[in-house]
Specification:
The complex is a heterodimer of chains A (360) and B (137). Chain A has 360 residues and is α/β, with parallel strands linked by helices. Chain A has a single domain, classed as Alpha-Beta Barrel (TIM Barrel). Helices cover 38% and strands 11% of the residues of chain A. Chain A has an eight-stranded parallel beta sheet. Chain A is globular, with a radius of gyration of 19 Å. Chain A starts with 12 loop residues before the first helix and ends in a 9-residue tail after the last helix. With 137 residues, chain B is mainly β. Helix content of chain B is 3%, strand content 47%. Chains A and B meet through helix 11 of A and strand 5 of B.
Chain lengths: 360, 137
Amino acid sequence: MTTQTLDQAGTPAATRGARIDCDVHPRLPRRLDLAPHAPKYWAEMFDYRAIDRQELMTYATSTLPLRPDDPAVQADAAGLARAHLDPMGVDAAILNVLSGAHAAYDPYLATAMCEATNRWLAAEWLDRDPRLRASALVPFQNPEAAVAEIERLAQDRRFVQILAVLGGEKPLGRREYWPIYRAAAEHGFALGVHPGGTNRHSPGQSGFSATRVEEVTLHIQTFASQVASLVAEGVFNEFPSLRVVLMESGISWLPGLMWRMSKDWKGARIEVPWLERPPIEIITQHFRVTTQPFDGPTDPAVAARVLDQLPDAGMLLWSSDFPHRHVDRGLPTGLPEALHPGVRGGNALATYDRLELTHV
Amino acid sequence: MTEHVVCRLDEIPVGSAKRVSIGPRDIAIFNVGGKLSAIANRCPHEGAQLCLGRVSGSARADRPGQHRLEREGELVRCPWHGWEFDLATGKSYCDPERMKVRSFEVSVKPGDTLAEGPYQIETFEVSVRDAYVVLTL
């Protein structure tokens, strides 16, 4: 059992005050960024095919009208430090690249772009600020190559997580992805799931949404299906040390899913007999959710009741979602003060085996 | 403890179940391969009759995809939502300590032993030639 209650006496004093931002977005690498980190064939393809932006971005090509981004603040490590890490007193920040490299249909192009992106992250970001960590992009379209990339990065402990797209070709619990999870678990990587996907923004089983407001709201459908898939297919039976971090997922829907899945497990467990515990216990142990953007009500008292529905507050990890402009980059409204230290950093340290705060 | 003669044995053939009532109690008696067991008939979930459930074994798997059936004939699945109850103990698989039904002692006795003695024969006559199902509660 690795979950940690935030205010428990055993929390190491040295980590009590840590601030770990679990979802920060650097700018997207363009072909000129990636070419130096790619084999010649792929450098030529990036350039000749003008692959500056993936057609299949892991978010909508235009994020307007929701968020007018300021490109300057995420242009490089120094800009990120000035705009965010320094003023917020961040001790460690996990970078998530949402370029869509890992959502390309061509498995070989995806492999080349993922590796080049990881090399670019290391050279242009991780090498330039000791506070930075990263999620590695790996091609789920090509599990063998994804495993090779995880093995390549295993020695670089600044990569703490493997990033999966929220909406892929198949549910994340499917066995064809297990080699990726085996390698991730063996080397202590968490599995991060962030909105975006290969399905051109279809949010769920009812088809394609017409508007942005539907799309962002309905991400929770896909998150719910991925949680159910990872649990039901027995991923945590096979890889008991694996932890999954849901980013930009919101929080309020998760207790309902846990209750419902545990209820239905009682009668339907016969088809998944490897689940010997109610899903609520498995989900509590293995899943974490980041705080920003928080989807709870604005009334702090009501929000507190929503948060209290999580079986263990150790599931909550602070994220700013920088640079996307949410009203509050701090902690969710209504979060009891006793839980602040854990959510700000203690829980992340208990979640990410590879994350150590050597410079604090 | 009182012994109640509830029916003739041939009213519960092998592989079947029968619902009997003793006062306010609804009891399901199962005959699995000639072995009788008796548990409360009402599922604690939403009240379905367990005597109408399917008697089977317990699904187990050491790893995903390695399904097997264990303890064949030792569990009944509720006909409404599939919750499983152990016929011997009345305990559910999903929450054995909190979600369970009462189990009862059940036996078979020849009619000639029932002609006398402290038995409550409620609704039928006992023939010395038949065997009878006796519940103790």
